[in-house]
Design goal:
Layout: H1 18-40, H2 45-52, H3 61-76, E1 81-86, E2 91-97
Antiparallel strand pairs: 1-2
């Protein structure tokens, strides 16, 4: 059996902002929509894992910071940021920052 690091306590749970919770829920909804598309295309979960495993594994901290910075600039200029998955036959909104107002 391979050696592994000992479990470390996570510490006290932190409260998340309402904006973070909304964004997280948007991404979960997008994940469900993408999973339905995967099923329609007849791609197994295992095959999708194989296809996505070829992507380089690296920390995305710098990218995350850049996206947050760009989002703040866009908002300051009166706009909003959206993340979409675009296919030939469909576009799926994965995230909109700030979230669209209900109504």
């Amino acid at each position: 059996m391979a050696d592994s690091d000992a479990w470390q306590p996570l510490g006290e749970p932190r409260e998340v902002s309402e904006e973070f919770a909304l964004a997280y829920n948007q991404l979960l909804d997008g994940d469900e929509i993408l999973d339905r598309r995967r099923q329609r295309l007849g791609i197994s979960s295992e095959r999708l894992d194989e296809l996505t495993d070829v992507l380089p594994q690296r920390p995305f901290d710098r990218l995350t910071e850049q996206l947050i910075g760009l989002t703040r600039i866009v908002e300051a200029l009166g706009g909003h940021v959206e993340v979409r998955a675009v296919f030939d036959d469909e576009t799926i909104l994965l995230l909109r920052e700030p979230p669209a107002a209900d109504g």
